[in-house]
Amino acid sequence: MFKQILLAALMTFGLLAQASATEKGPYEVVADTTQELVKVIEEARSYVDKDPERFTNEVRRIMDDVVDFQSFARGIMGKYGSRGYYQSLKTDAERALFRERVIRFTNNFKDGLINTYAKGLLGFNGNRIEVLPLADDVDLSGSVGVRQDIYGERAKPYQVLYTVRQGSDGSWKLRNVVIEGLNLGRIYQNQFDAAVKQYNGDIDKVIANWTVAPREVMEEQAAK
């Protein structure tokens, strides 16, 4: 069942922009998107076997609008994507290399995420999904957690928490997702840290060889 929950959460992760608009708050964005999920997936089933690239490109277009890929990627890079590390650099060349690495990793991370999860979206068969309203006193000045309950074979629903934050243009963008306590951002951060050790601190090699952890890896960690 965890695989189904993971797929449901990733659908909202990937398709959040279906309802994205600057006048909508974090709850409305997630809730409206949830209502659109089945329609989006059903439409894709009619053509994906013959034209899978069309579906992947559609996922890419949607995610580009709503996921703050660069902030997400810099968080995964840890020290090597942090503002403090950038400010500690002494030369223009070092700072230029920092910016170039962030851009390269962001692009690799985005491509891997989209390609990996676009393949898994069609595996969701449609459980009942409920988005919980935000508390009346929630602070909208920073990151906001929007909870989604997904009902399956057990009495207690599976919980998914989306972290969204408002950008300077007023739109709410996704920064992270936690599925039943499984923090996807932290998984990727641990993966990046392990790669830094594997390549003896060569960040360029880490970026060049980056692949998004498959669902099987996340399921294995969830079972621990």
Automatic annotation (TrEMBL):
Coiled coil: none annotated. It holds the Pfam family MlaC. InterPro entries: MlaC/ttg2D, Tgt2/MlaC_sf. Residues 1-19 form the signal peptide. Gene3D superfamilies: Tgt2/MlaC (3.10.450.710). Keywords: Signal. It comes from the Bacteria. PANTHER family: INTERMEMBRANE PHOSPHOLIPID TRANSPORT SYSTEM BINDING PROTEIN MLAC. This is Phospholipid-binding protein MlaC. It comes from Zhongshania guokunii.
